[in-house]
Amino acid sequence: MNTPTLGVANDHTLKWPDRSTLRWNRGLMGMTLAALVIFSLPFLYLSLLVGAGLFLVIQGDIGIEDYMLGNGPTWVAIVRLVAVCLGAGWWILLFKPLLARKPKKPASQLVKKVGQGDLFEVISTICELTGAPFPAEVRVNCDRAVKVFLSQGLWSVLTQKTTLTIGLPLVVAGSATEFVGALANEMGRYPRGL
After folding, report:
1. 3-state secondary structure of 191
2. For the segment 86-115, what is each residue's pLDDT rounded down to a tens digit?
3. What angle do CA 154, 159, 161 make, to 5 degrees?
4. Domain ranges, ordered by start, for the chain
5. What are phi and psi of 16, to 5 degrees?
């Protein structure tokens, strides 16, 4: 029984593509589409700002012209001007996301090896077991998590200098096993460094 085939094989017959290939192609197309949407969102937002600004200017000009020349009832021109003023306030608020500041990082305290030998011993053991580089700095803060990040930005990718930040609420709320597990989980994400 002949089945329909698609694609050319070595014996010059056409065969259907493998399902995993089709799934991979759909996934790649989905990621590409998502990347295009994310890339285009800032441009769409800026075009919304420009378009709304132009609309408000044109409506304000029409309202002033109608009021000054006496075209139509006066109350229509006044309502239009009030609507333009309210729209201008809304338009100014649309700039707020563009001018937003970065949120402040929680204040942290540097932990020195002199006073916290046990902590550094645990970190050293975890680094040996996971293959992660020993962090250049260990800090504590009031966040609820353990985080490892680059100390000096992208330059740290080459130098492998990382900072380990330990959240004190995690230390207080959990047991020693949970704390060591959280440390191992975070440091084990980068077994050969970042």
Report:
1. strand
2. 999 999 988 888 888 877 777 888 888 888
3. 80
4. 19-99, 108-187
5. -70, 145
What lies within 8 Å, CB to CB, of 80 at 6+ separation is 59, 62, 63, 66
- According to DSSP, the residues that pair with 8 across neighbouring strands are 14
Q: How far is 142 from 147, CA to CA, in rounded Å?
A: 12
d(CA 16, CA 12): 13
Per-residue pLDDT at 37: 92
Q: So what CATH class is 108-187? A: alpha beta
The Cα-based distances of 7 to 3, 27, 28 in angstroms read: 13, 21, 20
Q: How far apart are CA 10 and CA 73, in angstroms?
A: 82
Q: What is the mean pLDDT of residues 70-77?
A: 82
Give the CA angle between residues 143, 148, 154 to the nearest 5°: 125
What does each C-alpha distance from 94 to 36, 89, 100, 162 come to in angstroms? 23, 9, 11, 38
Q: Give yes or no for residue 164 having a pLDDT over 80.
A: yes
